[in-house]
Amino acid sequence: MKNYLFLTIASFFALLGIFFYQESVNNDKNLHLVVCDVGQGDSIYIKTPSGKDILVDAGPSDKVLDCLGSNMPFWDRDIELVILTHPDADHLTGLVSVLERYNVLNFVTSKTSKDTGIYKKFLKALKNEGLSLKYVFANDKIDFSDGSFSNVIWPSSEATQKLNPKNYSVVNEYSIIQVLQYGNFRALLTGDAGKVVEDQIAAIAGDVDLLKVPHHGSKTGMSDYFLSQVLPEISIISVGKGNRYGHPTKEALDLLSKYKTEILRTDKEGEIEIITNGKTFWRVD
Description:
The protein is an alpha/beta fold and 285 residues long. Helix content is 33%, strand content 23%. The protein has 10 helices and 16 strands.
């Protein structure tokens, strides 16, 4: 009986310690940006200064759940906002598991679609959660009400009106591109858009601290002009080990090296976390 009581008390204090530790880590008033290690795909988890949980894409499998589990307290099952940049499987698939395991409060995406099995499964999961497709366009501002916000800079509503709904091969070019900002810190999140689109938004994006490298470092993702405008201090490539596309390409790596940006890759580094207090930013090793 005494041993049982001791174990009960010890377990209680252990859980209490975990709770306070998690609270201190997750409510430090900083903005956390985590590029999840999901293999050959994209998923970015953001915790805002007030503790709101934001997910941008969810990768090609349920591996995104590992990222959420390691960055959110186990008792927190609410995700305030999910942003799907475009409906390709390597950005979309993990959302099915996210919708099943978490309470997603808000959802936005680009005005594109695909006639694929995983997209139909995703739509069903979205409906089961009482959510529907809500679109965002250039000039929309997503304000997190704590000093941090995201400015959508692509696609424009005019551009999406020209999209042929049956031309599924071009959905990459209608990826949501956004600038996440907190104080002086600016991060450019590019989805899978290619250099033609990136050149159009380069001057609008302007100088940024962090670049999520377009399309996993493909040779068609960036141009010299684009990088000359955004001049990132850190460039993060979300990419899978030994992928069949040869990402990141030598062309992309050479171009990034030309601009002396620090290059980080999920296939080498695993999960990559950047923290900012709005004045400076640093990487979590």
